[in-house]
Amino acid sequence: MRRLQVKSSAGNYDVKVGCGAWGALRKLKGYTSTFVLTEPGLWAQWGTKFAEDTGWSGVRPILVPSGETSKSLTMAGRVAAELLNRGADRRSLLVALGGGVVGDLGGFVASTYMRGIDYVQAPTTVLAQVDSSIGGKTAVNIHAMKNLIGTFSPPRMVLSEPAVLASLPPRAFQSGIYEAVKHAILAGPALFGWLEGKVAGLTPGQTPVLETLVARAAQVKVDVVSRDEREAGLRRVLNLGHTYGHALEEATGYRRFLHGEAVAWGMLMVTRLAELSGVLDSRVGSRIVRLVRAVGPLPALRGLKEEKVLGLLIRDKKAVGGKIHWVLPEGIGKVRVTPDVTDAAVASAFRDVQRGVWND
Amino acid sequence: MRRLQVKSSAGNYDVKVGCGAWGALRKLKGYTSTFVLTEPGLWAQWGTKFAEDTGWSGVRPILVPSGETSKSLTMAGRVAAELLNRGADRRSLLVALGGGVVGDLGGFVASTYMRGIDYVQAPTTVLAQVDSSIGGKTAVNIHAMKNLIGTFSPPRMVLSEPAVLASLPPRAFQSGIYEAVKHAILAGPALFGWLEGKVAGLTPGQTPVLETLVARAAQVKVDVVSRDEREAGLRRVLNLGHTYGHALEEATGYRRFLHGEAVAWGMLMVTRLAELSGVLDSRVGSRIVRLVRAVGPLPALRGLKEEKVLGLLIRDKKAVGGKIHWVLPEGIGKVRVTPDVTDAAVASAFRDVQRGVWND
């Protein structure tokens, strides 16, 4: 079991990564009642293990349909009403057992139910384990605008069980690995080089190597959010690949790409943008491209209108005063956050990656 | 202009009470854009003054229908979408101009929009000026459950303009005065005695005396929330009269009583409960009853089923582990928070007040 610690103004908390991580819930005391929020398919597969590991026999979870549409204010209201009906009070605990959707929704409900109750993240996807479960960001979507409503509210702890990754479909699995690649670009040559040696042929069932991957990639997120809890500055680096990525997701109605896949395309584009802006050596750029490509195939970019994608960039939540803060890789382990790129370069980077005329 | 200061972990903030208070918005700088959330009727009456006092000529407010039904997650989502459509970003400012509904809704949207933007409370009812605008509690309702979803998120400042009270209907005006009475019971003989001399014949147009009343009653709230921001303990005293009050509101579907009226009945019941529990001298109890009664007539309690009202008490949001923390007056300026009252006394207190067999 690996234990990472996140610093937070509302109290530090642990991220535990390893087989049997859910067992840490046995030691959480002092709650009037405990609740689990999860998805039906996940519960069918892992509910028995969860009940055994935690000793919560007979636990009857609150179920929400899988998929992004559950990340809505309407669903948040339904979960809150269900908590109330089951007698949850201000000293109750909610465990969010699932991927990013359950984690974001569960965290949002917990941080606002009766103005805030404790919650635990028990992430079950690579993406959630290396990224979204850590840092206390919670959110729901408003129509097509992802994460428009949310809170900064740290969990009580994060419990990442690598064994559950074995049941992930290949695409969902790979989608999460892209976020690990993002963390490696931010972290530096050690993690990046390690990933270069592991990514090819990696499968969801390789529990020991995944435990290491999750712990090492999660450490990057832990370090960043511990130094910048509320995204005042440093935390922006985590947005690497997300500016283009969000626009790609929105332009395709969130149907063509999984989140990590859109971020993967976004990382390729922003790598190109960094080259075009003169801040990244093309040999390093090629190394980034090779690692992203080694993860697996990406859904094609064909048919995506340049004007549409570029028009969506400015609506990104991170834009302030109409300015986008771009996160440009300058090397392995070094990024620059800057609004100073030309519109022409932004357009060229998209175009070069879409047309495959660069590095593909 | 009177200036009170609230201590808050997220930064202290001012409560300004006085004619022209809105003018303080002129001095708020550094926002990329500013927005006003309000109700159509209020804006029709006071929009011109607001624009003049603030210098925000041409301001086009975001309007929500007046009334409690606007305090919903659905409406929060609509307001957030409207903010997005108008280009609000993380450095935008939202002003909530209105009563408790606009304040709670606006505060909730602001505290969750893009995970939190700054907001200013510009309360326009007695209730909002002496109570709900101060302390950083925001909330929306889920079905009949009031304030089930919300946040603790302090405003940037609170600006209370007493002149706007002149347009309040008599019932709404009196409803707010009851909350001022509650604060006087908590504060002590000075404010209580002052109110005893002012309450009879008080009308919404008496701006100078209302400025004093609002400032003095608001000071009580300021003192409490400055010492207990997140309702860990002390803040519970503000719940005086609210345990019965909430049950009365819920039992009548929020149609018969205005909030302050329900709290007024609740104060009478809890005063009786304190007497029955042996912690309050009946002469002091009578003095409380007289002041509550002097504010004005209350909608009758007739037809309310005792079992129904008592059954709703336990669903109160402040109940923890099935225990209700009662706030019992022990004297003017002294209350006790305790779960230790008998069910029989709770029922008798309701019954005695409903039947008018006590002190009426």
Characteristics of this structure?
7-stranded mixed sheet, alpha/beta, 12 helices, homodimer, Rossmann fold, Dehydroquinate synthase-like, alpha domain, 2 domains, 360 residues, two-stranded antiparallel sheet, 44% helix
Question: Please, could you describe this protein's structure?
Answer:
Two copies of one chain form a homodimer. The first copy, chain A, has helices at residues 40-54, 73-85, 100-112, 126-132, 170-187, 189-198, 207-227, 242-251, 259-276, 282-295, 306-313, 343-355, and strands spanning 2-6, 13-17, 34-38, 62-63, 93-98, 118-123, 137-142, 145-152, 157-160, 326-331, 334-338. With 360 residues, chain A is α/β, with parallel strands linked by helices. Chain A folds into two domains: 2-167, Rossmann fold; 170-203 and 240-355, Dehydroquinate synthase-like - alpha domain (Dehydroquinate synthase-like, alpha domain). In chain A, the strands form three sheets. Chain A has a seven-stranded mixed beta sheet. In chain A, strands 7-8 form a two-stranded antiparallel sheet.
SSE inventory with pairings:
Two copies of one chain form a homodimer.
Chain A: E1 2-6, E2 13-17, E3 34-38, H1 40-54, E4 62-63, H2 73-85, E5 93-98, H3 100-112, E6 118-123, H4 126-132, E7 137-142, E8 145-152, E9 157-160, H5 170-187, H6 189-198, H7 207-227, H8 242-251, H9 259-276, H10 282-295, H11 306-313, E10 326-331, E11 334-338, H12 343-355
Parallel strand pairs in A: 2-9, 3-4, 3-5, 5-6, 6-9
Antiparallel strand pairs in A: 1-2, 7-8, 10-11
